[in-house]
Amino acid sequence: MAPAAQQEDLANPVHAPEPPDFDEQIYLRLNPDVLLAVAAGKFGSGLEHYERFGRAEGRPITDLGTLPRGRVVPTAKSRDTAELAEAPVGVLDAIRISPAGGIYVVGWVNDSLDRLDSVDLHFQGWSVCLDAAAMARVRRPDAEPASGNGTPHAYGFWGFLYAAQRLTAGACNVVLRLKSGAELTLSPHAEMAEDQDLRNIALGQLAQAPYLGNAYFAAAAAVDGELGDQLLDFNRMLTRRAVNAPYVERFGPRRENYKASIIVCLYGKPEYLFLQQAMFSRHPAMRDYEFIYVSNSPEMAETLLREARRCALIYGLSVTLVLFSGNAGFGAANNVAAQYAASSRLIIMNPDVFPYDQDWAVKHEAVLEGMPEAQTRLFGVPLYYDDGSLMHAGMYFEADAMPSLTPGRRPETSILRVEHYGKGAPPETARFLRPRPVPAVTGAFISVARDWFEQLDGFTEDYIFGHYEDADLCLKSLEAGCAAWLHDVRLWHLEGKGSIRTPVHEGGSAVNRWLFTKTWGELVCAELLGPVPEHPALRAAAEEALA
Amino acid sequence: MKVLIVSLYHPELVRGGAQQVAYELFEGLQQRADVEPYLLASADHNSPALFKSGARITGFDGRPNEFLFLTQEYDYAWEKGANVLLVEAFKEFLELIRPDVVHFHHFLTFGIDLLTLTRRVLPEVKIVFTAHEFLAICPANGHMVRRTDASLCTRASAVRCHQCLPERLPEHYFMRDMWMRRHLEAVDVFTTPSRFMISHYTNWGLDESKFVHVTNGMRARGVTLPAASKTGARKRFGFFGQMVDAKGLHVLLEAVALLRAGGFTDFTVEINGDNIHFATPKRRAEIEAFLAAEAEFPLAERNVLFNGSYHPEQLRARMARVDWVVVPSVWWEIFCLVISEAWSFGRPVIASNAGGPAERVRDGVDGMLFELGDARALADAMYRACTEDGLWDSLAAGITPPARQEEMVEGFVGVYSARKAA
Q1: Which value, to the nearest 10 degrees, does the dihedral of the CA atoms of residues A186, A192, A196, A201 take?
Q2: Which residues of A touch B116 (CB under 8 A)?
Q3: Is B172 touching A (CB cutoff 8 A)?
Q4: Which of A235, B74, B148, B235 has the fewest CB atoms nearer than 10 Å to its CB?
Q5: A90-223 is classed in which CATH architecture?
Q6: pLDDT, tens digit, for every residue of B77-120?
Q7: Which CATH architecture has domain A247-393+423-500?
Q8: pTM for the full model?
Q9: Quick check: ipTM above 0.95?
């Protein structure tokens, strides 16, 4: 029964004579909800209900006579039956509120027939309505046996909203509202969570929740739209906070300027600082280079400071440490670190990258001096796995598409995928090593003119943690008129071993995939798809390379 | 010529072969007019009483030119220290002493990256590194024994090391390999007490021309031991050394069981050693169960006697009780000081046919070799030793006295004095 309608009618009750053909028994038979309400003592009789509500609602009162066999006979208009919907069955597992205004809810509801429309939260002093369309829907194996009707359905939901204002947690009234207007009111207790923790909870949920269908696509579909935007907004706030007033200390010799500034973003694995210093310091040419280590792991600060001091004594290279108070992500960390560079050439390098040839720096300078400026403005290099095979010789794009058969969702989820030329190829495969323009190069090693990097506004800082900023930077460069190049200055890359990776990072990657696809999907699909892209700046070189 | 010897531990604080050799070298150099030796021996949590507040390097017990390097916070994964102050102290010490030669014995406890630091602080210094095992190559205690099947390893690689120590990924061992080589680049001359080690290191990729074989030497003994029992029967075997897995005591005990099973019981085996707590739980349990069972027999029926650990002064008495010394090691035993000790008392050695023992023991001339890890082959050799007339006399007569301390010192002085390769 629609409470709103009741309220309205109570305020202005209808007084009309009993209709001549009113039959109490037939009225109760045709209106089972009224029968229940009368039995529960809410109304003295069916007639009372009819007079107060039924007439205005157009409730059936006439005997249907003998019903035709096997055919449904409507007794009310469809919108009226919607108002009769029962309260849904559901559970609110948790509500977490963060000091900066992050709101996270997770629960499940049986809305397999009547879809969830919104979730209202009412706290002491504030209320908010979360749109179900902006929520992720996931499977809830625990709810399925009780609620399942044989058809697979994602009973679970979770939502995230960044309110950007200080909020309090505590006692909360939650209203789960279905499309029909049916409601379930619950009264859970909401707990506070730190802002970073809340981001991690949401991203962990995104990565780990069981989905109905392929998780890779389902996670991208889940964040498509409002949920993704909210997570990005919240992450931007955390990034700004993390890079605010970093601790900076210089070690070793210091010059006015260097031939290049190697910027290395550290996360979770401090040992790569001394490993890189040991390996790169082998050649005297490295005295012309400076290292800027930027740390997204505040818990490593003491170790990094100690190791940087040890390294200055043992290896004698110039090292700058930039320490953040939180994880600012790869893009923002590199952008901030670039501000401390004392050269006109930036080298973005992963911590697990090491010289393949001792004299790699000499080779790097030879490229800068010997190649046309347009070919060196932004370039990558061949990278090798520890097993000796090629790991990277430029990147190209593919698109994965999956039709969605779930009603009410967009018909297809498309995700851009980044692939590496030559991954796993024999080390001397000439076609991959040949200098050439490529759609993109990996952020494990990017040599870029500092003015060009700044002109491109550096790395886009929207990506969460890391992944896709490198391709994004290369596409920004291509769009601005300069394709990324690959030049044969080889390095080892122990891909993925120089940092830690958890489900939270996988969640970040899922958001990044969606963001990258949203940003670049149109351009990529038009001109940059596949190993031999149509783009005029790339096609000839790619065809030659793969011939 | 100023020579700084940097040693893992001081042998009077923590016993062990590497530090013993380093110290005897130091003592030997002290006798020479042409060398001014210094010793810097590491100390760690094993010697807490010798740590002084705020000190990183101190003297040692009032002895001239002997210093202790008070190390801490060692990182075993990368074989390096973590403490900045220790690096600064070592740098200052080098600048203070300004040696012509820095001779590293091992890198454990103070860190392999101090080799690179030494080169940086003293660009012209001659750096000598004596390898006492294969820790630079093999992260599994430097033994080069496969943990997968206990076979001897001949080649380290990222995947093979990961198979032995699966707790880390192959990339870790790839990096470790690069890290070790990077620091060994600082070395001018490598020395090894056995020649076979050189091939291990050159197979690993180090430059063969940088290697010199300098044997370990022994202090001269004041007394010679009378010949073993004159009854004619040479049926008493001795095991000397640590009771850890690599030393292969379990192979000897298995050989004893095989001999008994074959009905041969007219022999004794005396076990002299300790440190069974460093054995793996499995081997320790095996050995302890064997000894416990043996103790249940009436005294006259026991074949195996456990004498416990011994001080060098007690060695003579222990050697007097045996005719043969068995070296059943199941790893690339490096030099095997026990062989030198056995020979210095005129005892022939029955040893596994790998590593230092295989290089030193001449099968059928001054001892016998058996297939490493093969208890049946050892049992056969022991049976032969007990039963073959004249064998003991023939082999004992074939023994060449082991190299003496002076020969070792002379060998190292030759290394120090040789012109540096360009």
Answers
A1: -30
A2: 278, 314-315
A3: yes
A4: B148
A5: Sandwich (2.60)
A6: 999 999 999 999 999 999 999 999 999 999 999 999 999 999 99
A7: Alpha-Beta Complex (3.90)
A8: 0.87
A9: no
